[in-house]
Write a structure and sequence with these properties.
EC number: 2.1.3.2
Largest sheet: 5 strands, parallel
Shape: globular
CATH class of the largest domain: Alpha Beta
CATH topology of the largest domain: Rossmann fold
Number of strands: 9
Enzyme class: transferase
Number of helices: 11
CATH architecture of the largest domain: 3-Layer(aba) Sandwich
Organism: Alicyclobacillus hesperidum
Protein name: Aspartate carbamoyltransferase
CATH superfamily of the largest domain: Aspartate/ornithine carbamoyltransferase
Strand content: 15-25%
Structural class: alpha/beta
Radius of gyration: 19 Å
Number of domains: 2
Catalytic activity: carbamoyl phosphate + L-aspartate = N-carbamoyl-L-aspartate + phosphate + H(+)
Helix content: 25-40%
C-alpha cells in the first residue's frame, strides 16, 4: 500500500502528472468532480495547529464528493492523551475511513506507525521533518507562475533548520534540471546536516548570501519562511527577524518575472505592502494547495493521474 510520507517518493514524472491532474480538476465542472470520490470517507487527524493544510485537504475531499471525519487538536482531544500509540490509532481509524491525512509532531513516530494502517496515509506535516504535499503545491505554483520547473535560481530564506516545508521543497527541486539555490538564514537556523549533505551530493549549486538584498537579487523564485519559534530548542537559536523580512525596497532588485512564495502563516517576514505586487504569489500558492491536494487524493484513492 502506498503511504505519502516523504517527497522522496515522488519522482519528476509523478510530480508533473499530479500537476496536470490538478489543472484538469481545476477546470472540471463541480458536478463532475463531486462524483470522483462519492462514498469515500477521509479522516483528518491534526496533532498540531493548521489552517491552510487542514481546511484545503477537507475542502478537497468535499469538492471530490467524499466525506470527512476530523480530529482537530488530536494531541489533546483524542486517546493520544491517554497514551494510545499512533500505530493503534491507524489500525482503528483505518476501520472507519478510506484514507488518513495526518499532521503529527514526531516525524519518526509517523514513519514507524504508517505501515500498520489498513488504508493510505498522507503526511500533512511531521514535526520539523517533512511536508511533502506542501512541496507538491509549491512546485505546482512555480509551474503555474513561470511555466517551468527547471533552469531556476531559487532563494530560500528564514528558518531552514526547523522549516519542514523547506526540507521537502529542496528535496523536490534537487530532482529538476538547472536548479541553483541561494540560502539566507539566521546563523543557528541553517539546513540540518543530513539535508545539507543530500544537497551537496545532488550536485546542485548552493550559495550562501551575505544579506537579504543579495539573496533575492536576480532570483526567479524567492521562498520566504517564518522562524519556527515553537520549535526552537536553545537560547542561541533565538534571533531578531528584521534582517530577514522582505520589504518594498527589495523589489527593486527582484526581476519582474520573479515570484515570492511563502507557505504561510507569515508573522512579519513579508511587508503586507508587497501584497498587491504581481510578484507576490503566496495567496495564489495557498489556493493552489486545494487543487494539488484534490489531485493527490484522486490519485491515491482512484489511481487517477493526468
Amino acid at each position: 500500500m502506498f503511504h505519502a510520507l516523504s517527497i522522496a517518493q515522488f519522482d519528476v514524472d509523478t510530480t508533473f502528472q499530479l500537476i496536470r491532474r490538478a489543472e484538469a480538476l481545476r477546470a472540471m465542472p463541480r458536478h463532475e468532480t463531486r462524483a470522483l470520490l462519492a462514498g469515500d470517507i477521509v479522516a483528518t487527524l491534526f496533532y498540531e495547529p493548521s489552517t491552510r493544510t487542514r481546511l484545503s485537504f477537507e475542502a478537497a475531499v468535499y469538492r471530490l464528493g467524499g466525506q470527512v471525519v476530523s480530529a482537530e487538536n488530536a494531541r489533546e482531544n483524542s486517546s493520544s492523551k491517554k497514551g494510545e500509540s499512533l500505530a493503534d490509532v491507524f489500525r482503528v481509524v483505518g476501520c472507519y475511513a478510506d484514507a488518513i491525512v495526518i499532521r503529527h509532531h514526531r516525524a519518526e513516530e509517523l514513519d514507524a506507525a504508517a505501515p500498520f494502517s489498513p488504508v493510505p496515509v498522507i503526511n500533512a506535516g511531521a514535526g520539523s521533518g517533512e511536508h511533502p504535499t506542501q512541496a507538491l503545491l509549491d512546485a505546482y505554483t512555480i509551474w503555474r507562475e513561470l511555466g517551468r520547473l527547471n533552469d531556476l535560481t531559487v532563494a530560500v530564506l528564514g528558518d531552514l533548520k526547523y522549516g519542514r516545508t523547506v526540507h521537502s521543497l529542496l528535496r523536490l527541486l534537487a530532482k529538476m534540471e538547472g536548479i541553483r539555490i541561494r540560502l539566507f538564514h539566521p546563523e543557528p537556523l541553517g539546513l540540518p546536516p543530513e539535508l545539507a549533505a543530500e544537497m551537496r551530493d545532488s550536485g546542485i549549486p548552493i550559495e550562501i548570501a551575505e544579506d537579504l538584498e543579495d539573496a533575492v537579487r536576480g532570483a526567479d523564485i524567492v521562498y520566504q519562511t517564518r522562524i519556527q519559534a515553537e520549535r526552537l530548542q536553545a537560547e542561541h537559536e533565538m534571533c531578531a527577524t528584521d534582517d530577514y523580512a522582505i520589504r518594498r525596497s527589495h523589489l527593486a532588485v527582484l526581476p519582474e518575472h520573479a515570484r515570492i512564495l511563502h507557505p504561510l502563516p507569515r508573522v512579519g517576514e513579508i511587508d503586507p505592502a508587497i501584497d498587491p505586487d504581481d510578484r507576490a504569489a503566496y495567496f495564489r500558492q495557498a489556493e493552489n494547495g486545494l487543487y494539488m491536494r484534490m489531485a493527490l487524493l484522486d490519485h491515491m484513492l482512484r489511481g487517477e493521474l493526468g
